[in-house]
Amino acid sequence: MSSTELPSVPAVTVTPKVSTVRVASGEKLRSVGLPGVTLNLRSRPPARPGLPPALYVHGLGGSSQNWSALMPLLDGLVDSEALDLPGFGDSPPPDDGDYSLTGHARVVIRYLDSAGRGPVHLFGNSMGGAVATRVAAVRPDLVRTLTLVSPALPEIRAQRTAWPTALLAVPGVAALFTRYTRGWSAEQRVRGVTALCYGDPSSVTPEGFRNAVEEMERRLALPYFWDAMARSARGIVNAYTLGGQHGLWRQAERVLAPTLLVYGGRDQLVSYRMAQRAARAFRESRLLTLPDAGHVAMMEHPETVATAFRELLADTGELAEAGATGARS
After folding, report:
1. Backbone phi and psi for residue 56, each to the nearest 5 degrees, phi listed first
2. What is the CATH number of the domain that holds 130?
3. SS3 256
């Protein structure tokens, strides 16, 4: 993939969002229309004018809500905005049905170009980490820093606990799984996801669990839910097979932005052993390992991730720049 494959496209509509999607205190939702795709965006009012922008990209099966615990902790550092990738959260499917990693990266770049928000502090989790890596590699002008939480980069030997997710990429498996699990309640599904993604599932509060169940019920009612999951999983698997300049590890080596890597010791989807390889691949990187965290450290340990991000800004001079920008505004 080259930068010429990811064209700049102006936004055509921006409207307030009225939805049943849960909105945390201080958050706002809005829709942005781009040619062929409509994106739901979750944002927080900046603590002061002039703060540098940040964009957060969720993982497979996730949504912009996955960043709601971290974003308020960064209110004084960045102007936060999280998107729902097409087919996830409250964003409808893309018109062209493209759920590949390249397709998702293209959407992120189109949004940043149309909004004029770049360069941003770019965050990505899991699949969103792979998407963010690709964006940073092909459009370095759009990325100030890169923060990757359990990025879905290729592994030669994936953990057995990650196989069911990969199997969703096989044609027909999603439909088979849907039939097999037809009798499962939303509560049962959330318990399964929590056990898979959290290092300590008991850390989820009763309120957080209830909210997750409500969101699961809403999304299961969407006619495209499983299609978006299966096609995006297929996109990850296909990206893993690419070699040469299009390979994700090769693109990681091309990233110029200072990079914070966050890995959890109890991650059942992205192996903890990949942390050192990632630290070597990204040329200007720092590594935060959390032995007790699972796949979603920004939800389990948001304060720790926020502290590490602040240190990244301080060490790269971005923290002083953000303060100076705010003072001038």
Report:
1. -115, 135
2. 3.40.50.1820
3. coil
pTM score of the predicted model: 0.87
**Backbone CA torsion sign across 147, 149, 154, 157:** positive
Cβ distance 134 to 108 under 8 Å? no
Residue with tokens 């599904």: 189
The total domain count for the chain is: 1
In angstroms, the Cα distances linking 250 to 3, 181, 254 are 15, 39, 7
CB 249 within 8 A of CB 280: no
pLDDT in single tens digits along all 329 residues of the chain: 433 344 333 343 444 443 467 788 889 999 999 999 999 999 999 999 999 999 999 999 899 999 999 999 999 999 999 999 999 999 999 999 999 999 999 999 999 999 998 899 999 999 999 999 999 999 999 999 999 999 999 886 555 544 444 444 444 444 444 554 566 788 988 998 899 899 999 999 999 999 999 999 999 899 999 889 888 988 888 888 777 778 999 999 999 999 999 999 999 889 898 999 999 999 999 999 999 999 999 999 999 999 999 999 999 988 766 555 443 33
CA gap 294, 268 in Å, rounded? 7
Domain that holds residue 284: 3-328
Tokens of 125: 């989790």
